[in-house]
Amino acid sequence: MTTILQLLIYGVQLGSIYALIALGYTMVYGIIRLINFAHGDFLMLGAFVGFFAVSYFNLGFIPVMLLSMVVIGMVGVAVERIAYKPLRSKPRLSSLITAIGVSIFLQNFPRALPAIGPAPRPFPRLIPLVNYEFLGVTISSIQIVMILLSFTLMLLLHLLTTKTAIGRRMKAVSFDKDAAALMGINVNNTISITFFIGAALAAAGGILYATTYPMIDVYMGSVLGTKAFTAAVLGGIGIIPGAMLGGVIMGVAEVLATSINSDLGYGIGFVILILILLFKPAGLLGKYTIEKV
Amino acid sequence: MKLFKGKMTYVFIIGLYIILEILNKTGIINSYMMQIVKFAGINIIMTVSLNIINGFTGQFSIGHAGFMAVGAYSSAVITTVLFKTINWPVYMQIPMFLLSLLVGGLVASFIGFLIGIPTLKLKGDYLAIVTLGFGEIVRAIIRLIQPVGGARGLSAIPQYTNLFWVFVFTFLAIYASRNFVNSSFGRACISIRENEIAAETMGIDTTKYKILSFTFASFMAGVAGGLYGHLLMYLQPDMFSFVKSTDYLVFLYAGGMSSISGSIVSALILTALPEFLRFMSEWRMALYGVLLVILMIKRPNGLYGGKEFKFLQIKNNKRMLETEQH
Predict the structure, then answer these.
(1) B144–A97 C-beta distance less than 8 A
(2) Total domains in the fold of chain B
(3) pLDDT, tens digit, for every residue of A10-66?
(4) Could B253 and A266 be called an inter-chain contact, meaning their C-beta atoms sit closer than 8 Å?
(5) How many CA atoms lie within 13 A of A60 on its CB side?
(6) What is the CATH number of the domain that holds B56?
(7) Domain residues for A253?
(8) ipTM of the complex
């Protein structure tokens, strides 16, 4: 029982990172219907920005987090402007290939830079490690900070999209770009803001991930990105609470299965996804609409 | 029935094969470059088959390497694990190799069929993520099967794949795809791509045709996988990761959807491109990414989107090929 409870804590911890990354996927998908393959690489870049901020400026946890979020947010906006915007009115799948191109670039450009290179690097510890015993279960200060911080960020995002004017603009653009433009909404700006928030959340996810699993390399984003994307689809892509739910389910399932066998842990998320899509074809919280002519 | 228009195409293909063999024998092209030519052939089969699903039927599958893995492992199991064909006399090896390719293709197509039944009811991006998940599950399962080496990989596979077989199977794949696309099955698939609801209204059993094209394409991917394993002489589950599937997606879209010619051209160019960029060492993959973005921005429909070489066209069929891609 204690073991299962302990595994659940690890699961929620991993799941909250998946959820943060999944949110970025979901937001971008929701607004321009693009699976942003480069999203996982934003996460990797975020971790590296954090790494350099600590090594050169010796900043603390919160400033590192904020700096990395702002820098990567701007990278996200730049990527959208350069690589996705010119293709917005073109066949939807061409922008998918540019997304793959961006992803290849974002992985291999830092790899070629002498300052970063292909070798994995240890990520400095930003939060002092304290273990708390509770009902026979160990929970560390890192886990508490991570889970609280991810859920705070998710809550803020939820409030932003439901209660503010920006959120209403995003919803309008996602619903119908042309109609939104006619209503006086600046579509380009709204999409840029969405990319900024999505990429910033990925950067936050990257820092949190590196804090827990302190090894970073240029390819760390691709596997995490795939899993987070799976989580987003699992919950219903384009739906923000769905991404959170999907992330936590993925994380818990993965940790439980990994305790049996590591390859099983890797595959289990996808198995769950396929099973759920068979019964709920639009994800857990998605509404399946029958297309009408 | 007329094969390709006129006989020039055959002369060209056979000529190209002979020239490559001569260049290889005389040492003008070294074995490393020959290896790249063979990979290009396998990549053409993969890209053309992915085109059947993504380009002509309009379904969005992004786990094609999974089928390749199934085919590669099934055929390698026959030649390496079940029978030690490497110790057999030469005249027995070739039939066994061809049989193993057939088995690889059949197993892959059967899995494609099984996966297709439930998943092809899903639409667009949901189908995409399920096929992605399928590819990753295949990889995880192979890692768990110890008789084929698990995560260590399967080594000592005899090298049966040579330039001749690559040529034969690449030709067959292109020929079969071109005939498929121009058959009534192919037209049904294209109508699903153009407008699924309209196709259904016209009495086309959309699910049936989607599964059919999925099965057909996974057969070709399985055969390509068999060739791949017998060329590399070594298989490892991580070779068939999502990265490999995205490679084929890139080949497909860069060449242009619904264009067999485009798939051929882009598989050739993009297989060779990283090798030509090798002088840039570390920077080459970064540049590859940039080139890809520029290509898609300048030519959003790919190199050959919706167009075909003359020898792949069928008379009175031009208009259909030129329809706008979605």
Answers:
(1) no
(2) 1
(3) 899 899 999 989 988 888 888 888 888 899 999 999 999 999 998 888 888 889 999
(4) no
(5) 2
(6) 1.10.3470
(7) 2-279
(8) 0.83
